């Protein structure tokens, strides 16, 4: 154990003194930040541009209801009245931007068709927005018929399709960012997701570290002082700490920005018991992939000569990203359930499911975690066997056949 | 002398090939013991089995003055396939290696600086390993293996890739460590170096013992006198000279391998006057020649030695 810690300390120190690692450490959050800022900049500029000037030639006294409707739907419109004829408006529009002319006359009340003229450049949502005016105008048309208020209400209400299933509610949390009940669950999930992602990425460095050790031919010198098992555990533990350092750096950037931009009590949402379980799952995920990476790294002479087999193994952690769509779309569905029991996808999928599901499926959860822990134990054993032989094999990659032989020995 | 390490009946196979067949020897305190043999004879395999990097199929490896297992902290090891982490400072890696051996760090630092100075690397302690030349790297690896004052030092091909000046420094340092009581086991195929420094040797070929004993024993047993004559002579003429076992001729140079118990002075007196001598040299067959003889599976020298024994 003492030797394990020594190896871990060395790996941590060595990387923290390495410029490439330190740059990477800050570059990851910087990239997140840049994308975040670009995103919000685009969002802001959208807001400025969409302010559309709408001229209304009102012959039927509908101005007030139009204003009300625009306010109700928070349309970004400057509404003004005009007396220009339709032909004059067309000329006028040729050298205007974000401008529209709406003609409300007797025809509207008779046929229900409104003539609208727009400039070439206009907000892409304008055509949908303008449809919203149909409601008050329809009201006016119905009023002409001289019906009772009740009849009018029935007519103008129309028919609405409402989806009553539960899933619909839980999936829309992405859009309804203001729904605090959902956010309470998303924040810990996001946090665990970041941890899993960061330590798995850092964990991939284990792989490089193991194959580099072979390339630099230092393995045998180190192994004269420590056992292969201690060296392997030291690496796994060391890179775990490096991964956590990456998470801390990431959060140092992310939390202040999130607090400033989102104006939500994120810290309050974060410090809940659920976070502990999610982080525990993330750590289990790390241990599984670390065992796989360290074993595979030891079979390779060099990063650039990795065979297909090694390449496939490297892709394992990313399977859960590939199936993220269906899992989040239907967190109690078949894909989500099955992939919870497959160790390679379980950590990512469990975090996604626990984040989106309101009631946690405890039995499934316990079975999945048990499966995960057992596979970690098995993979650690296998990695130990592969590592022991592989780390001393110089100059060539091991074939899957050879690896199988080492495992069986 | 106190025995530090005993290897007994070591056997190891790779697939169907037997790499080691019944290898037995011991290493004593304060002596230099050399394992010699051509490439692929089984030197590194033997050493790796001792270090616990491989496990023997059969046989026992005993470290004396120690309980069970390998006393890793008391052994210094320089493997044949060796290197260092590239992007770290020389001092950092030396201290890491010492730390792995549980050697106190302040003492390690002091010793590291001393050795760097001795090996002409003064002021390099804060230089990254990747900036060192190959020879400098070798020196750092050597320092790493002796920094923790090991009781047993195992060096696999310590001289490979070194220039003559560095070889000399290494030799001197290894000798000094032995004189201070360190047991040293080294492997090499550079006979001249080994001949100058080792106390005992174990020669191995095809995974089997060929010679085992002190350098003097080996020399008296195998190294008869030989006489090299420069000058044009008929081979049949030379073979008639008494006490000549065998003649090898190459252009105008003839090598006469002599019988075991000759008196060089008497033998010269009895040389016939008819032979042409531009240059004449009498010396013992060197370890190098014994080695070449064994490595090429001729075994002529050995047979000659046995014939006389």
Automatic annotation (TrEMBL), chain A:
One of its GO terms (cellular component) is plasma membrane. One of its GO terms (molecular function) is ABC-type transporter activity. Its main location: membrane. Keywords: Cell membrane, Membrane, Transmembrane, Transmembrane helix. This is ABC transporter permease subunit. The chain crosses the membrane at residues 21-42, 186-207, 236-257, 277-299, 311-329, 360-380. It comes from the Bacteria. The keyword Hydrolase does not apply. It is a multi-pass membrane protein. It is found in: Cell membrane. The keyword RNA-binding does not apply. Residues 19-383 form the ABC-2 type transporter transmembrane domain. InterPro entries: ABC-2_transporter_component (IPR051449), ABC2_TM (IPR013525).
From TrEMBL, chain B:
GO terms for molecular function: ATP binding; ATP hydrolysis activity. PROSITE patterns: ABC_TRANSPORTER_2. Residues 5-231 form the ABC transporter domain. Keywords: ATP-binding, Nucleotide-binding, Transport. It comes from the Bacteria. The keyword Metal-binding does not apply. Belongs to the ABC transporter superfamily. This is ATP-binding cassette domain-containing protein. The lineage of its organism: Bacteria, Bacillati, Bacillota, Bacilli, Bacillales.
